[in-house]
Specification:
Length: 175
């Protein structure tokens, strides 16, 4: 999977009015795809594709149509995984990238999702999957753990500790 795709061609999008005229001429049978492409200065592939797509309807599709990216986990599963990672961070137990990749692998196995062979071999998700997951879930961020700061040590007081144990009790009751 490519992390950041860079388009290699610099083709400009065809003018919509010219494209409508060319496709209209082809659909009415006035000219062939090749002649319409030559006359209007378009590629025959473009004219042919739009003619085939709009045979009988006379309406052009939007200028840019992209297929959704194929992901290994479904959108609902990724939302669930994302919420779990956030919950761990709230309970003062942040998860590293390696642990996240291992968790994604276990999660996919538990949900009987078809996974790539390199996931099975390494028993964790790939780097590419992690970076794509992070792009899709921009509320998550990768942070390197730091030692406890003076301010955090000073904030270690009774209300904070009680809050921790309340959360711990809720998790134990839930699971």
């Amino acid at each position: 999977m490519v992390r950041n795709y860079v388009k290699k061609t610099s083709h400009e999008r065809p003018n919509e009015e010219i494209l409508k005229k060319a496709v209209g001429d082809v659909l009415r049978g006035v000219m062939t795809i090749r002649k319409a492409a030559q006359q209007y200065g378009l590629t025959k592939t473009t004219v042919g594709r739009y003619s085939k797509l709009h045979h009988g309807c006379g309406i052009l599709a939007p200028q840019r149509v992209t297929a959704p990216a194929k992901t290994i986990l479904s959108e609902e599963m990724e939302i669930e995984l994302c919420s779990y990672l956030k919950r761990c961070a709230l309970l003062n137990h942040g998860i590293t990238t390696i642990q996240t990749r291992q968790l994604a692998y276990i999660f996919a196995l538990a949900n009987e999702v078809s996974i790539p062979s390199n996931w099975k071999k390494n028993e964790k998700a790939s780097h590419d999957w992690l970076y794509a997951f992070m792009k899709r879930n921009s509320t998550l961020s990768i942070r390197k753990p730091e030692p406890t700061s003076q301010a955090r040590a000073a904030a270690f007081n009774k209300p904070v500790v009680m809050s921790f144990y309340d959360k711990l009790l809720r998790v134990k009751v839930k699971y």
